[in-house]
Design brief:
The chain has 817 residues and is mainly beta. The chain is built from eleven helices and 47 strands. It has four domains: 75 residues, Carboxypeptidase-like, regulatory domain (Immunoglobulin-like), CATH 2.60.40; 245 residues, no CATH class; 64 residues; 307 residues, Porin.
Length: 817
């Protein structure tokens, strides 16, 4: 093995001596500004400079003649010898005596070309022109260090990428897929083969990373979870300036159109060139770049199908290298700085993946479409966007050789071996598992994953709530887990606990059988959805000031099941013994109930019809949230069944919608309705998520604002058996002060209307919401370390006599992990 590596090294060395790498920059002689995409001709070849005017050419002769040209500038010729390593080329603007009307005409020419390209998108965009198509795709994803002169690929989650990079390990993966498109289902991917160098188990999350957009025809296109304005959308003239650079002399000539963002701070955009067919105005080729905290480069090429008169995406290469600061690039939903590839600037990443990476780091991914079939009748019948077949991980080498569009280079093979060795030596797979556990709210120690939400909490009734909890992991079993917690309140001096188990009947459909016994307290009037909840939260703002609880001892069994990818359900049977923590009784048929038994059957669902999913042989993973999403629940209480005292029915429906814009502003809309009928005690009616303690003085009520709570509504002020709530939040684009300080100004409007039947059944007085409750709020979020400030004001029928009583002043806390 050592001798083979030595031969490879000598071979590379011989090649390097035979070639000369000439680097340089092309600039405007008068202003010194770089000339983006200037043309370079040499050795019967053509090349273009990058957006910063830089270039790198491999020359093979002792002396080479180069010609540099740019529209509106005088061309220049140079002869360079092999000893020259760097040149700075200064082009002089042409001085032409042209009539004003001619100047205007030339200025408008690229605009006219772009307008034609936009108008003809329906006949040029394959996803609009064709009813259906499918094609195979070979993808290679590499991360490596430029100094090593090796290539490397990354197949990993957001945390995996930062782990691999910050550890200095190479990473390499490749994939073979078939894509299917239809007007009804859109573009779907079937993964036929997948390799993750160095990992024993498949790293499926890499499949969800949007690295290579299918085409630039979209209104906006996504790269690493960041949306960039498309250069051929209807509002492109608001976002981009255009300039014609050249016209190619190929069999089908193309206009070479340069595009540059107009308002980069407001709308994310790339700088690049489009090769537009002079006859059809279709994209033949595209190049796009972004310079800033990183250097991002994208190259796309299209293949022409004469019988359809259609250009179809053929190849794409995306490369990312560390930049020199300046503009920042958003990647994995956040910032890349100093070359670190991670989802976002977050406390979790800074703690678990500290330090800077080597400036020679680079990431590159190449993708090639082949076996393209237009208007094919084949389809992929699934609700998931990406499906991994069971055989994908076990493909033999002959399958790869038949489907690779390019053979693995010696560099690739060396990188694979290096990645396999380093990933095992540095225990990257274990680090990834640890970080994924942390991000989902658990801290793994051996066979037990401790729940981070159980160690410490505080509320007015229990005082300090201390304890621990969690679940067993795969070290115990892949077929089941045990879970539970034990906590103690220092004020009420009572232990609370839970014991349970989940049996995994079918991992692919997430069919789990659950059994639980719980003794704890629950807030009176709260309504919890079995599905669609996020159990892990570092801060639960409302929990601190809650003072009205009931005690329960509940035994339950449940069954979860996923129908398709976007519809997950849970059915639960439970029996609860209820007692009170304060003086309350439910009056029914001449009897007073302060202790009672509730026997319930509950059906809950989470439906995400607009989300995107990745379906693997053993699981379904959410890869893009998609809105609106719907969470629903129906609960039936039975009288006389297992000792149940009351007969009732409860309904809940929660609709969440989010509108994200390219200018980074966002609007969130939450609509929820609750309805209860029958014999329902106050403990199981509905409040409206109040979040203001009933104390005198604004500062005495100072607390942390919730996500969908009413900040001016006092605890225990209103209860309802029917209510409808509307929350609207509009966040302006972040104020860019520093990469770690980007506060967000948010305007909030909240409304709820409701009513209560038979209020005389409850021994505690409270108000109805039949006249409608309204409040307006404003927040400045994420001022520093996730903290911000907010204020809210109550108005309308339930406004109180003084400003002090209607006003709430709040902390806000939003932590990205």
């Amino acid at each position: 093995m050592r001798y083979s590596f030595l031969l490879i090294f000598l071979l590379f060395s011989g090649i390097s001596f035979a070639q000369q790498e000439l680097q340089g920059r092309i600039v405007n002689e008068q202003t010194g500004e770089p000339l983006a995409y200037a043309k370079m001709e040499y050795e019967n070849k053509e090349n273009l400079s990058k957006i910063d005017g830089s270039f790198s050419l491999n020359l093979t002769k002792d002396k080479t003649e180069l010609t540099f040209s740019y529209i509106g500038f005088e061309p220049q010729k140079f002869t360079v010898s092999k000893e020259v390593e760097y040149i700075r080329v200064k082009l002089t603007p042409k001085i032409e005596a042209l009539k004003p009307v001619t100047i205007s005409s030339e200025k408008n020419k690229p605009e006219a070309i772009i307008k034609n390209a936009i108008a003809l998108k329906p006949q040029n965009d394959p996803e609009k022109r064709l009813k259906s198509f499918n094609f195979k795709n070979y993808n290679k994803f590499i991360i490596d260090n430029e100094a090593n002169k090796l290539e490397m690929q990354s197949d990993s989650t957001n945390f995996e990428l930062s782990t691999v990079i910050n550890s200095g390990a190479s990473y390499f993966s490749e994939k073979i897929s078939r894509f299917y498109f239809s007007q009804k289902q859109g573009l779907k991917e079937e993964v036929l083969a997948l390799k993750n160098a160095g990992f024993e188990k498949p790293v499926y999350e890499i499949l969800s990373l949007s690295v290579n957009p299918f085409s630039l025809y979209h209104k906006d296109f996504n790269i690493f979870e960041t949306d960039y304005a498309g250069p051929l959308e209807k509002s492109s003239f608001k976002n981009y300036d255009f300039k014609i650079l050249d016209t190619t002399s190929s069999a089908r000539p193309a206009y070479v159109i340069y595009f540059k963002p107009k308002r980069q701070r407001a709308v994310a955009g790339l700088e690049g060139i489009l090769y537009l067919d002079t006859q059809s105005y279709a994209i033949q080729q595209a190049k796009a770049q972004l310079l800033g905290a990183v250097k991002l480069e994208i190259d796309q090429e299209y293949q022409y199908f004469p019988e359809k008169k259609l250009w179809f995406p053929k190849t794409q290469k995306t490369t990312i290298r560390p930049g020199n600061g300046g503009k920042s690039i958003s990647i994995f939903g956040g910032m890349i700085s100093s070359g670190t590839l991670q989802k976002k600037e977050s406390i979790l990443n800074n703690i678990l993946a500290p330090g800077k990476t080597d400036p020679n780091l680079y990431l590159t991914t190449t993708s090639t479409n082949f076996d393209i079939q237009l208007n094919s009748e084949e389809s992929l019948n699934t609700s998931a966007e990406i499906v991994v077949i069971p055989e994908a991980k076990s493909r033999l080498e002959d399958f790869w050789q038949k489907n690779r569009t390019e053979a693995l280079s010696n560099q690739n093979k060396i990188t694979q071996e290096r990645a396999e060795r380093l990933i095992k030596e540095k225990e990257i797979e274990e680090q990834i598992s640890f970080k994924n556990s942390i991000s989902s709210g658990y801290y793994p120690v051996g066979f037990w994953d401790f729940s981070l939400g159980k160690f410490f909490k505080f509320n007015n009734y229990e005082g300090i709530r201390l304890g621990f909890g969690g679940k067993t992991n795969k070290q115990i079993s892949d077929d089941f887990s045990l879970n539970g917690y034990l906590v103690y309140g220092t004020k009420d001096e009572v232990f609370k606990y839970n014991l349970g188990t989940s049996i995994y009947l079918n991992k692919a459909t997430e069919t789990d059988l659950k059994f639980n016994y719980t003794r704890d307290i629950v807030e009176t009037g709260s309504f919890h959805y079995l599905q669609g909840k996020n159990e892990f939260s570092i801060v639960e703002p409302r929990f601190v000031n809650i003072n009205f609880f009931y005690e329960h001892r509940t035994i339950s069994s449940g069954l979860t099941h996923r129908f398709g990818s976007d519809f997950k359900t849970e059915f639960r049977l439970s029996k609860s013994d209820i007692s009170q923590t304060r003086d309350y009784s439910f009056l029914l048929n001449g009897q007073e109930f302060s202790e009672y038994i509730l026997s319930e059957a509950t059906f809950s669902f989470l439906w995400r019809p607009f989300a995107k999913f990745l379906k693997t042989p053993n699981a379904t993973k959410l890869i893009e949230k998609g809105y609106p999403k719907f969470t629903g629940q129906i609960t039936k209480g039975f009288s006389g069944v297992f000792g149940g005292d009351f007969d009732y029915t409860k309904f809940g429906l929660l609709v969440e919608h989010e509108i994200k814009r390219l200018n980074q502003s966002r609007t969130e809309i939450i609509l929820e309705g609750n309805y209860a009928t029958g014999e329902v005690p106050l403990t199981h009616l509905f409040h409206s998520l109040p979040n203001s303690p009933s104390r005198n003085g604004i500062l005495s009520r100072f607390s942390v604002a919730g996500r969908r709570s009413f900040e001016t509504m006092y605890y225990n002020e209103f209860f309802s058996d029917k209510q409808a709530m509307l929350h609207i939040k509009h966040q302006l684009r972040p104020i860019n002060i520093h990469r770690l300080v980007q506060p967000e100004l948010v305007f909030i409007s909240r409304h709820v209307i409701g009513d209560i039947s038979n209020p005389e059944r409850h021994s505690i007085p409270f108000k109805s919401l039949k006249e409608g409750y309204h409040e307006f709020g404003i927040e400045l979020q994420k001022i520093i370390l996730g903290f911000g400030l907010g204020a809210a004001y109550r108005y309308g029928p339930y406004s109180l006599p003084t400003f002090d009583e209607n006003f709430a002043f709040k902390f806000t806390f939003h932590l990205d992990i």
